[in-house]
């Protein structure tokens, strides 16, 4: 009798675009060579069309029963999982060709295809244990839990050389190639997503990315290619990184829902509308249809912010050694023709630092995702009231201008004296 599970798996493989109906027997033979004989489904409770991750779980049991893998050896399990899931992963050339075919219809259709591929083959770990809403200064924040148990093979994760590398999950990683005005760039999804459709954009060249005019121009070019995503410069993540990257994702992060609460003018930029937003962390929002005006106004704001001090609130432009402490984290997105920049104000002073206890909670302590409204903590920590309190306090601590009467007044004074 035919095993329906094997057929289900083969159908997902064919849908991924890498195989044709003629390959069915071949795929079945490859699969059985990895897991051994499979006469009937282990888990009869799976109804309808099971997902590829459900199927993988069953196949690992079959493989264990057939002595094809030692289930107590986590690395061996990951290697076998990657070998199985590789059957659901077309070669890079095919993925890129299909992506551009979909892109001809719409940008979203293309990213939907690529995202689903990375979910189906297990490259993206889509599991979140808890997703809870926590109010921070009357703003709803999402708290998620996730595990990070994958073993990594040492290779620069942003070099194109990492595509298909090694024996574990990088072998099922795929990179979409892009041409950014003559520069070769790559796009892939994050294996442990912190935001919806969390992705990364990176140059092919192994080089750092710093906050500069050129970086902002590249970010806006990426927004032209992916107008339904946001593109952010994740300053924390790029610190000390030899191969830089830009962060992207679906425009669903809570920060973008935050209302504008104080509108002001930036002298010399009449076409740019500027406002503060109702957000626990200090954010300036700019809107304009002109890329050039947007970048010019951000550069102007950056300059003014780098010169600004307010000692009674511990806001100091320079530290004791004269090093500048102030920078901005720009997050760009588009609404129709309108370009929107949310600028997170950063002061590197100790008073605004993330505490060690908070860092220990985070799945990725080097990401700015928490400042966008989504905190992802590791799943070995229980989400108790105490943990929630630590998250609340830590988010508030990262705000440069506090939401106290004095802090609000100082923030307004800063933007009114630009
Ligand atoms: Zn690299």
Automatic annotation (TrEMBL):
Catalytic activity: alpha-D-galactose 1-phosphate + UDP-alpha-D-glucose = alpha-D-glucose 1-phosphate + UDP-alpha-D-galactose
Pfam families: GalP_UDP_transf
Pathway where this protein functions: Carbohydrate metabolism; galactose metabolism
Keywords in alphabetical order: Carbohydrate metabolism, Cytoplasm, Galactose metabolism, Nucleotidyltransferase, Transferase
Superkingdom of origin organism: Bacteria
InterPro entries (alphabetical): GalP_uridyl_Trfase_II, GalP_Utransf_N
Residue ranges annotated for the Galactose-1-phosphate uridyl transferase N-terminal domain, each copy included: 22-127
UniProt KW Acetylation keyword: no
Protein name (database record): Galactose-1-phosphate uridyl transferase N-terminal domain-containing protein
Organism: Candidatus Vagococcus giribetii
């Amino acid at each position: 009798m035919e095993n329906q599970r094997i057929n289900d798996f083969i159908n997902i493989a064919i849908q991924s675009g890498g195989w044709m109906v003629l390959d069915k027997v071949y795929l079945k033979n490859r699969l059985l060579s990895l897991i051994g004989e499979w006469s009937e489904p282990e888990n009869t409770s799976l109804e309808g069309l099971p997902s590829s991750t459900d199927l993988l779980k069953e196949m690992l049991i079959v493989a264990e029963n057939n002595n094809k893998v030692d289930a107590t050896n986590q690395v061996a399990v990951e290697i076998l999982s990657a070998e199985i899931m590789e059957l659901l992963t077309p070669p890079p050339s095919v993925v890129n060709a299909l992506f551009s075919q979909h892109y001809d219809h719409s940008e979203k259709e293309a990213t939907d295809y690529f995202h689903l591929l990375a979910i189906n083959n297990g490259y993206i770990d889509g599991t979140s244990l808890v997703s809870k809403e926590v109010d921070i200064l009357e703003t709803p924040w999402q708290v998620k839990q996730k595990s990070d148990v994958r073993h990594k093979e040492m290779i620069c994760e942003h070099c194109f050389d990492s595509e298909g590398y090694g024996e574990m999950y990088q072998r099922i990683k795929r990179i979409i190639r892009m041409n950014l005005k003559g520069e070769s760039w790559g796009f892939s999804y994050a294996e442990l997503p912190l935001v919806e459709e969390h992705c990364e954009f990176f140059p092919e060249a192994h080089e750092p990315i710093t906050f500069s005019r050129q970086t902002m121009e590249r970010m806006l070019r990426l927004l032209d290619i992916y107008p339904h995503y946001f593109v952010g410069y994740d300053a924390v993540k790029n610190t000390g990184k030899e191969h830089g990257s830009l962060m992207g994702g679906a425009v669903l992060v809570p920060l973008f829902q935050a209302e504008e609460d104080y509108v002001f003018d930036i002298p010399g930029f009449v076409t740019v509308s500027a406002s503060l937003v109702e957000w626990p962390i200090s954010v300036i929002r700019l809107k304009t249809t002109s890329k050039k005006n947007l970048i010019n106004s951000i550069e102007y704001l950056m300059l003014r912010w780098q010169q600004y001090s307010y000692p009674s609130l511990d806001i100091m432009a320079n530290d004791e050694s004269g090093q500048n402490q102030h920078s901005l984290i720009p997050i760009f997105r588009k609404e129709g023709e309108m370009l929107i920049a949310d600028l997170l104000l950063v002061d590197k002073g100790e008073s605004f630092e993330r505490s060690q206890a908070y860092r220990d909670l985070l799945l990725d302590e080097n990401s700015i995702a928490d400042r966008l409204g989504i905190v992802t903590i590791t799943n070995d920590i229980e989400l108790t009231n105490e943990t929630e309190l630590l998250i609340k306090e830590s988010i508030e601590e990262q705000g440069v201008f506090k939401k106290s009467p004095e802090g609000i007044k100082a923030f307004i004074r800063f933007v009114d004296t630009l």
